[in-house]
Amino acid sequence: MNSYFRPAVDAMAGYIPGEQPKPGTSIIKLNTNENPYPPSPAVTAALHNLDGEFLRRYPNPFANDFRQAISDVLGVPLNWVIAGNGSDEILTMIVRSCAETQRKVVYPTPTYVLYKTLAEIQAAEVVEIPYGENNRLPIEALIEANGAVTFVASPNSPSGHVVANDDLRQLAANLKGVLLIDEAYVDFANENALSLVSEFENVLISRTLSKGYSLAGLRLGFGIANPKLLEGLFKVKESYNIDAIACTIGAAAMRDQAYKNECAEKVKASRAKLAIDLKQLGFEVPDSQTNFLFVTPPNGNAEAIYLALKERGILVRYFKQPGIDRKLRITVGTDAQNQTLIEALIHLV
Ligand code: PMP
């Protein structure tokens, strides 16, 4: 029987998100890089003040209240901002508008696996170029590959490292296609690449409210680039991609930078402590500028540790991928959660 689907869809594996156990279970969830702290009180207040009448009508198709908050807080013009249903949707929009058969989607690996899925949906050619020693960005090979879209996550997942702005500049200046700099974890980093959007016409930065703002369940992210580049994204986005509730709550969250920064500082302090504790157990723990650590257990048996932790009600992330299958990605939790993890690991390494 003929398949109903396009050959590209038949051929692809599809994206498999991290495990999401039912809320309310007592599982310590350190597998999908959520923030361990609740969203800003301004978010809860905005939720309480919602009027049902507000939901009867379609929302603003451009999420203007949310975009205005971003514009005010980051000091970028409103027409340099686009809102997405999670930053995943910003990634989807750029691939949809730029990639197709005969065009390439290029990125250094290991990195966020969704880039591959999005490229495959468009039947684009996928070019994966491994990072060098010490996470050296393979700049020449990335330029050579000549992608319609080149993705660089900075800070990267799962490695946790930041790519230097000078490297990103060199890439942007030499690429004919779009450079998407995925800053999903920027709220936990010491630097960012925002200034590159005004330096280069082909640079698009994506950010999210899922991590720093504790709003993964809301699904809200945004892209920043010059209006000429955003034009294509506005054409391909879903008609009302940001619902009325997300638009209102997202604006409140953005405007409470002090709360976001306070939570990020707590996470960074816990990250430092967790790194020390893991090192004491013999783990290799590279520096991270994110809310997770990408670690190698002393006995190298990452999968067994992942399974044993799961049995004890602690979820971390294990990737059964060649090259990274001896490592675990552990989201930084509260100090109490991290302590429970360490106590469990004492018996496992
Ligand atoms: N980029 C990276 C590198 C990520 O790890 C994630 C989280 N899975 C995202 C983007 C997407 O996050 P969201 O869609 O929740 O904004």
From TrEMBL:
<dbReference type="InterPro" id="IPR015424">
    <property type="entry name" value="PyrdxlP-dep_Trfase"/>
</dbReference>
<dbReference type="GO" id="GO:0030170">
    <property type="term" value="F:pyridoxal phosphate binding"/>
</dbReference>
<dbReference type="InterPro" id="IPR005861">
    <property type="entry name" value="HisP_aminotrans"/>
</dbReference>
<comment type="similarity">
    <text>Belongs to the class-II pyridoxal-phosphate-dependent aminotransferase family. Histidinol-phosphate aminotransferase subfamily.</text>
</comment>
<keyword id="KW-0368">Histidine biosynthesis</keyword>
<dbReference type="InterPro" id="IPR015422">
    <property type="entry name" value="PyrdxlP-dep_Trfase_small"/>
</dbReference>
<dbReference type="InterPro" id="IPR015421">
    <property type="entry name" value="PyrdxlP-dep_Trfase_major"/>
</dbReference>
<dbReference type="InterPro" id="IPR001917">
    <property type="entry name" value="Aminotrans_II_pyridoxalP_BS"/>
</dbReference>
<comment type="pathway">
    <text>Amino-acid biosynthesis; L-histidine biosynthesis; L-histidine from 5-phospho-alpha-D-ribose 1-diphosphate: step 7/9.</text>
</comment>
<dbReference type="GO" id="GO:0000105">
    <property type="term" value="P:L-histidine biosynthetic process"/>
</dbReference>
<feature type="domain" description="Aminotransferase class I/classII large">
    <location>
        <begin position="26"/>
        <end position="345"/>
    </location>
</feature>
<protein>
    <recommendedName>
        <fullName>Histidinol-phosphate aminotransferase</fullName>
        <ecNumber>2.6.1.9</ecNumber>
    </recommendedName>
</protein>
<keyword id="KW-0663">Pyridoxal phosphate</keyword>
<keyword id="KW-0808">Transferase</keyword>
<comment type="subunit">
    <text>Homodimer.</text>
</comment>
<dbReference type="Pfam" id="PF00155">
    <property type="entry name" value="Aminotran_1_2"/>
</dbReference>
<keyword id="KW-0032">Aminotransferase</keyword>
<dbReference type="InterPro" id="IPR050106">
    <property type="entry name" value="HistidinolP_aminotransfase"/>
</dbReference>
<keyword id="KW-0028">Amino-acid biosynthesis</keyword>
<dbReference type="InterPro" id="IPR004839">
    <property type="entry name" value="Aminotransferase_I/II_large"/>
</dbReference>
<feature type="modified residue" description="N6-(pyridoxal phosphate)lysine">
    <location>
        <position position="211"/>
    </location>
</feature>
<dbReference type="GO" id="GO:0004400">
    <property type="term" value="F:histidinol-phosphate transaminase activity"/>
</dbReference>
